[in-house]
Amino acid sequence: MINVKNLNYKVKHKHILKNIVLDTKNTQITAIIGPNGAGKTTFIKLLRNFLPITSGQIDLAGKSIQSYKNKELSKLISYLPQTTKAVSCSVEDCILLGRKPHMKFFPKKSDYEKCEKIMDELHLSRLKNKNVLSLSGGELQKVLIARSLVQESDILFLDEPINHLDIKNQLEIMDITKKMTKQKKITTFVVLHDLNLAFKYADKILLLKDGENIFYGDKNEINEKILSSAYGVDIELIDYKGEKKVIY
Ligand SMILES: Nc1ncnc2c1ncn2[C@@H]1O[C@H](COP(=O)(O)OP(=O)(O)OP(=O)(O)O)[C@@H](O)[C@H]1O
């Protein structure tokens, strides 16, 4: 679904991303990990065509990203940035905005039904009529994630989606993201700082450091040495109930 070849991005003389190569398929979750300032957000923005590529190529569904109109990309890609400013409206109306790329003028019954379903799945129904500006940081984050998921796009980009959430809500969001990725056969990229969650939910890992692709591949192929050197701390990987766990 997404194919990236020798992607470079420079701002003035600063080389922010260097020769990134990757190839994802539908139904795959790719966790983008790496230290602060590694280039994770910049990479997502390039994939969304919000920044101009310096050199290299990004193809979506076999077509160069530059050949898509912005409206087409809005329909194809759902993108939740690291920080989003909420405007005064009800939780339901905020989530309904996720259906905008599918609407002609006004929301249809099916748009409301999809909102109800996602609110139910994320246990947000009790907040339906509340103003988003009165929500806690974690509640608002869940509403914004619901808005991204209700869009039902082919590609989903979540930039640090679970930062404000408690453990239960983190798992709930990652569970539903995985369920939707598999059931709806979409391609998902999620920027994560929690390596345990990356190993639990991702199929593939992209590890960036100083703009370089230190590792890209199946999560089971990454090793302690690569992780330790990327983060500059001693990292141990252990197998626990069939899953990789990180100790540091
Ligand atoms: N427009 C810009 N001009 C100059 N430098 C920039 C610009 N945009 C990003 N950078 C730099 O590029 C690097 C990568 O930034 P980016 O936000 O992509 O990192 P990140 O991996 O998402 O970091 P974090 O984990 O802290 O969110 C940083 O050093 C940042 O300062």
UniProtKB/TrEMBL annotation:
Molecular function terms, GO-annotated: ATP binding; ATP hydrolysis activity
The UniProt record lists the keyword Chloroplast: no
Highest taxon in the source lineage: Bacteria
Span of domain ABC transporter: 2-235
UniProtKB keywords: ATP-binding, Nucleotide-binding, Transport
Gene3D superfamilies reported for this sequence: P-loop containing nucleotide triphosphate hydrolases
Pfam family, one: ABC_tran
Record-stated family: Belongs to the ABC transporter superfamily.
Name of protein: Iron ABC transporter ATP-binding protein
Native organism: Halarcobacter ebronensis
Organism lineage: Bacteria, Pseudomonadati, Campylobacterota, Epsilonproteobacteria, Campylobacterales
